[in-house]
Amino acid sequence: MTEAPKLPLRVWAVSDGRAGIEAQVVGLSEAIARLVPCEVTIKRVGWKGRTGRLPWWLNLLPKRWLTPDSGIPTGRDGEWPDLWVAAGRATLPLSIRAKRWSGGKSYVVQIQDPRVPAHMFDLVIPPKHDRLDGDNVLPISGSPHRVTPKRLEAEYETFKALIDPLPRPRVAVLVGGKSKAFDLSSERAAQIAHSIQIPLEQEGGSLLMTFSRRTPDAARALMTARLRHLPGTIWNGEGANPYFAFLAGADYILVTEDSTNMATEAASTGKPVFVLKMDGAGLKFRMFHEELERMGAARPYGGAFHGWTYDPVDETDRAAREVLARIGVEIPAPVAEVEAPQKPKRKPRAKTVEGVVETPTPKPRKPRAAKPKA
After folding, report:
1. Rounded to an integer, what distance in angstroms lies between the CA atom of residue 241 and that of residue 248?
2. Helix (H, G, I), strand (E, B), or coil: what is residue 68?
3. 3-class SS at 200?
4. What is the pLDDT of residues 244-263, one digit of tens each?
5. pLDDT digits (tens, 9 = 90+) for 36-84
6. CA-to-CA distance for 136 and 124, rounded, in angstroms?
7. At residue 118, what are phi and psi to the nearest 5 degrees?
8. Dist CA 259 CA 71 (whole Å)
9. 3-state helix vs strand vs coil in the chain, percent to 5
10. Which of 37, 42, 45, 51 lies closest to 23 in space, CA to CA?
11. According to DSSP H, which parts of 83-148 are helical?
């Protein structure tokens, strides 16, 4: 990008449609839009047949295999964005070529470690625990997300009638599930449920629990059965999702160790975050949790709740500012509040007491000296 683009910026948030991936690209795009005027468009990439499972280097003609609803221009004269923000393996064949296809107009930002040389993009934003570096690499703590104080406040209002009557401390429990590094067996789910039940019953608090799509059915059913007698609510996946309202209303947040997204979102609230142990292990996740501990945001859960304070983790805003700096877009300075000029003091008005008008008492005048008669 040879010169700074004009405002408003056209931003495409490109993902494969998975909730966690889309939250990252939309989160960074929205953070950019909070700093400068933007038009953000979500693009969900779809591939015909089994093309999406091919390695990026085997997908030689990606435009041919895109589904029509992907919304990616297939001709030479299509309109391209100023910023292309993407994440996920399915987007790689497009992100690698987007710069050339756009004639150099689009600045390509790839979130996460793309597992391809970083120089194939304008900027790569991986988590620090991926240990990726380079001139066009911006490592951040965790992942970009959509949590902001304003959004938490708005989401809480939606569920205020449900959460407000609940006794404190309110404990939000965010449960993930099976992944490459972790699993949640029934035995481990029972241990987690027991470690939550005891302190909540002792302290008289309430539970705000939600599961992810990856949570095994057996673990979900077991934890629900063990904890449903407690004051609070366990979201069953039906109706409006109270996830952000739970973050807003909680005094403590417990999150399973398998999810970078959930832990980062929890740490952005400034509330105490406890990490729940699962089956399995992963070096990168251990490094990530140790990083959160050094920042004062998270601690391993030991079966009891206790509070502390720290500065909310706001890496999404830092990444958004770096993107704008690299494309040469200046962020407007916040408008300083100007104090209103003080009004001149007025003379006291007559006061009315029960219909009687009280007038100010006149000042006594000095008697004039008598003039001598002629």
Report:
1. 13
2. helix
3. helix
4. 999 999 999 999 999 999 99
5. 999 999 999 999 887 877 777 778 888 888 998 888 987 666 789 999 9
6. 6
7. -65, -25
8. 30
9. 35, 20, 45
10. 42
11. 92-101
